Amino acid sequence: MTAFVATRAETQNGSGEARLIALDPGKMARSFPAEPFAYRHFLAAHPLLQLDALAQLAAGMPRDRLEYNSGRLKVDQKPEETPGVDLEPTEIVRQIETAGAWMVLKNVETIPEYGRVVEAVLDEAARASGHRDRRSAGMTEPMGFIFVSSAHAVTPFHLDYEENLFVQLHGDKAMHVFDNRDRSIIDEEGLETFPGKHRNHRFRDHYASREQVFAFKAGDGMFLPYTWPHWVETGDDWSISMAITWKTPEGRRLNKLYFANAVLRRLGIPQAPPGQRRWLDGVKVALYDIARLPLEPLRRGEAMRRMLRTALFGRAANYYYGKAGKT
Ligand SMILES: [Fe+2]
Where is the JmjC domain (predicted)? Predict the structure, then answer.
């Protein structure tokens, strides 16, 4: 395998500033944001994204921003049977070559220097799609999630409620991606969500005939659109990757509707999918905004986030503090 080495011309934009990601405007015009596609990036040698820096980062993060477990998971993993890993978070990162582990550092954008990387990538993506910057492109809630995993670690089948510019930084990885318009893979109830709902979905073997596989080495990346189901496996080496995410206005609206419909389904009142009854969708979004307003300042501290999840969604909503995450 050959490491990707960018030339000076490739890593600078027209103004001579460093480029972080190589997005082709033609491909963006054809596929963004409707379809997944691959690209190259220049982040693999970034000092903030090396193992030592990530061990330090893990040591300073609130506990609920870290999730980790054994890497020996199934694609169709039952959440309650997820095997744990007996190491402290910092040691998982330092020993990732032998730990047999999988770990994610969540919301790294809350650390200013990581936040600047996330925002710079989104600004580049916005410019490559014909906008001045991320704000004028409607990209809100920029976030970063860094994945550190041992060789042959599996991330079970799931979907994410945001747009994702994924970058591979070390080692090999493959992402198996499925079309989010296929309701025979994820049905309407499967799309509905609330904080603390376990992200793993059932995976049936016959889905495999409908997958697109994106294979990555350091320097490779892909755009993964909102709620496209996927599962991930690392190759023969340990791996670092990062998801650089944001939400569109339409994605934020859908997230509120999926939440409202999940709550109503729990109360025994299943709802029509978003888009079928527009006026009712509008009422649900307005009620969501009203209910959320007084909670927002409370969510800034870990203890309060944990209490709110338990109060609103039950103890299972804090699943990543449990067995799978035990140290
Ligand atoms: Fe994901």
Answer: 100-263
Q: Is 81 helix (H, G, I), strand (E, B) or coil?
A: helix
**What's the CA-to-centroid distance between 232 and ligand 1, angstroms?**
8
| Residue whose C-alpha is closest to residue 169's, from 313, 54, 318, 306 | 54
- Asked if residue 157 and residue 115 are part of one domain, the reply reads yes
Does residue 103 contact residue 3 with C-beta atoms inside 8 Å?
no
Residue 211: CATH number of its domain: 2.60.120.650
Q: Give me the number of domains the chain comprises.
A: 2
List the domain range (segments joined by +) for residue 37: 21-247
Dist. CA 164 → ligand 1 center (Å)? 9
Distance 162 CA to ligand 1 centre (A): 10
Dump pLDDT digits (tens) for 213-222.
Answer: 999 999 999 9
| Residues β-bridged to residue 223 | 37, 165
Can you give the pTM of this predicted structure? 0.86
Q: Count the residues in the chain.
A: 327
At 113-142, the pLDDT tens digits run: 999 999 999 999 999 999 999 999 999 999
Structural domain includes residue 16: no
User: Rounded to an integer, what is the distance from CA 69 to the centroid of its chain?
Assistant: 17
